# Entry
Amino acid sequence: MSAPELSTRQLRAFLALAQQRNFTRAAQQCHLSQPAFSALIRTLEDAVGARLFDRDTRSVQLTVEGRLFEDAARRLLDDIGEALQDVNDHVARRKGRVHVAALPSLAAGWLPAILAEFGRDWPGITVALSDALSDGCIALVRNKQADFALAAAGSGGAADLQAHALCSDRFHLVCRADHPLAAERRLSIAKIARWPFIQMARTSSLRQALDAAVAPARFKAAFEVEHLATVMGLVDAGLGVSVVPTLTLFHFQRASLVTRPLPLPGLQRTLYVVQRRGESLSSAAQALHDLIMARLATLALG
Amino acid sequence: MSAPELSTRQLRAFLALAQQRNFTRAAQQCHLSQPAFSALIRTLEDAVGARLFDRDTRSVQLTVEGRLFEDAARRLLDDIGEALQDVNDHVARRKGRVHVAALPSLAAGWLPAILAEFGRDWPGITVALSDALSDGCIALVRNKQADFALAAAGSGGAADLQAHALCSDRFHLVCRADHPLAAERRLSIAKIARWPFIQMARTSSLRQALDAAVAPARFKAAFEVEHLATVMGLVDAGLGVSVVPTLTLFHFQRASLVTRPLPLPGLQRTLYVVQRRGESLSSAAQALHDLIMARLATLALG
DNA sequence: GCGCTTTACGCTGCGCGTAAGTATC
DNA sequence: GATACTTACGCGCAGCGTAAAGCGC
# Structure
């Protein structure tokens, strides 16, 4: 009653014999001795439960049941080959899909060039990019929507995820070029804290890292906004100053503004690559991960 | 480069592990020791060319490539099972088709009851019946349109066919009940030859058998027709007498006619089962052949 | 007798189970 | 230390090739 066992060798031998109608030639085609080939056909006939060939010394030809099985065998071998080919295409990165979640700063600033290079290297792979705040990135990984994330919080105490540090970027003061702090000889948290400050929302990982880094000091929050572009607008309008990580400085590259690194050792945030623990990346995801690692040097970390 | 080998055991093992996500349980399900099962999975991964499971001591789960392969494996096993089931249905005579060619006399007289019984025994099998003259029957077999034939000529000197005798039927005089021959005490060819005779066409196997049997005597051909029903009509109209084999007597079962066996030993024709040499019958055809042989006793051979 | 398949028969090696090893929690 | 996968290892048997035997022409 248990299902009979069948192998691709048997199917290939069967088709070879159906084509050659001669045991000796079919055996050669299968790189087998003729008796071994004969035995292989016999085991196939036992497995199928039907005599598939009429053979005598003079002729070999398919039985009616053999002809029935011939079509099926051909289809089966094709399907098997197709399935293997498909997996191989994914392994060889001719096909695939990778979904990376990244902080907005990375998604807007550094990643696009890498994704472009990746697209040139592996044109068959579809790339999806989610720009989300750190918690959102990590949620996407946990949900198995994203393959991995580039986010600020580490594994966050979650046993199902694992993180390794990608890089650390330092914080910079941003203010108008005509602001007194722009010319201040020795910057410090205390000096900055005297001026109206443009905060990010409390949900922002940037804000959390900053609060943690300067504690117990506090800034005078003149505004609390969601987006760095808004921070830039407010600062440029002279409504306050702010402190942002290196990776976001591209928002502030304009003549009317000044950015100054804060030379305080503890004042930095670390970015992590986050993925599901114990689960390997797909071939496509691994390729993107590798490229990201290889291009780390291009991250201009002031 | 040569295509990798794959077996149903590997596919079943793969699906068991994908389902159980635990080597020990999956091994039990496959009736294998856990190490043997582990090795089987490894050989599958080698054949496919991709790691299909992420495993550590705590968890086993499909990789992305594994999930790709899972659907394919399920489909493949289904298709294989279906192919085997189909062949088995044919072997077990739950499906199939048999095409028999038979002389008109058999097709009209004796076969229908057998075909009806066959249809009751094997309702899944489609039966095709060709009623043709002997040469036509044999041509159908040679063309592989018919599985076998019940015909009068033997193998006919053809090396590609083989025939074995089915039965011999004797010849009978048919004439009107009021015809002098109806009351003749001792019939003979010579006595019959004095009367107008209704011949079959020369292409008829019946005619050929009859000519050969009575040679060198000849009948006085009053008519030469194609069909036995016509012979009956002509005889019934008093236009002549005729001589026909036992199997065709059903055409002449009416009060106005008399049929009398001709007690001459050599005067008979032999019917053969004809099939292609060296080619076995399909399961369905064999079943019909067997039934025909088993019902030979019901042939009323006068 | 010739050509082709099958049977006979050692032999190698794949693949099994048992047992020890290793890693993770 | 408990659990679960992997490695180590000895062994039996499936499956190979060589050689001999059947078998139909």
